[in-house]
Amino acid sequence: MDRDLGNNNVEMLCKTCSKQLDKIENGGSFIGKKDILKSPKKVLTANIPVKMDDGSTEIFPAFRIQYNDARGPTKGGIRFHHTVSQTEVEKMAFLMSIKCAVVDIPFGGGKGGVKADASKLSETEKERLSRSYIKEFHEFIGPEKDIPAPDINTNEQVMGWMMDEYQKINGDYEPGIITGKPLSLGGSKGRSYATSLGGSIVLEQYLEKENKGKVSVAVQGFGNVGSYLAKFLHEKGHKVVAVSDAKGGIYDSNGIDITELFEKYGKDGDLTIMDGVEEITNKDLLELDVDVLVPAAIEDQITTDNVEDIKADIILEMANGPTTPEADEVLEQDYTTVIPDILANAGGVTVSYFEWLQNLSHEYWTENEVNKKLEKYMKKAFKQVIEISEERGVSLRKAAYITGIKRVLEAEKMRGNL
Length: 418
Ligand code: GLU
Prior knowledge:
Blueprint (H helix, E strand, L loop, with lengths): L5 H20 L16 E10 L5 E12 L5 E8 L4 H17 L6 E7 L7 H15 L8 E5 L5 H15 L23 H16 L6 E5 L3 H12 L3 E7 L2 E4 L6 H11 L9 E3 L1 H5 L5 E4 L18 E3 L8 H9 L3 E3 L1 H4 L2 H15 L5 H26 L3 H19 L4
The chain binds glutamic acid.
């Protein structure tokens, strides 16, 4: 499969929202102005040499892309993954620009990535790679410039090494250069599970609006986002019937005890440790007859190859870009509700914003304060997206694009760039 569809996707995403924007503005000031979002403002690439434990040196292609900074410093995670390419990072950086605008936090969008198979790196190799990434890109990073965060296969430890390396180079204690840090280094309470908590809030808002009660759920991906999401939904009384990781999944029509699985999986990373479950593949999981399907792993999981087999009524996109634009059109025609990534998973970057605010003010908030504020931001964004969707009769994805893109273009206009 050709995974390098990044540019096409950005083009296509822009095209979809352009049409909607043209309609909304009704001959107004934004027509023909979307071009400013068709390509990133700054693309940084490097080949980073890293000393491996066996004494050899390996070269890793690395990227940091600052897509749009009209609304504030660029913001977005850094991923370590073997599929990373410039086009993939570009697409993710585009999504971050719109996502930050949808939840109305004062950031632009960026993304970073290293093409590396994280499962093959030892902790010491990972540390050297993290530090080398900062050595390479430190000039372009800063609390008022570009603020990285965790993403696929990077975690608070990686953020800690990166912050430390930045300080070694620049001298000052500046925790606001990066978010998703450990608590002991200026991290925020509630950040580790914020993406999932945000997603569960948005889903519950949608269910309430539709007068739906408890639902059955299948979650693809049991990393940081998928596992906490499954746990929150289980705790709220929904029936999580299937979960999976890269190795495969488990299914129980009566519902899996996620609290128990959460503890067990945390210890040895094996989903099949649960008793009485059926083993299934990731493909099976996507095609289960459930109320809610949650892709929480990587992009391009719902494609024209499998979209016709998807039976869920609601798709909660916790991964970034899990649905290809072509498959999305099919889902829209089938009246499947897609709660799009730029809304569903925006809780993570929202609490990153809170972390950054705490770092700049050196005043730290309680877990309850963080979660209450997150709830406020997520509910407000949900309400605004729903309103646009109902007013214009468009999907939630299009409504989210309209909300975000309008805000970015408004900022570009007031800067005199449009
Ligand atoms: N990587 C996360 C995302 O895709 C978080 C980004 C951030 O906190 O800056 O939204």
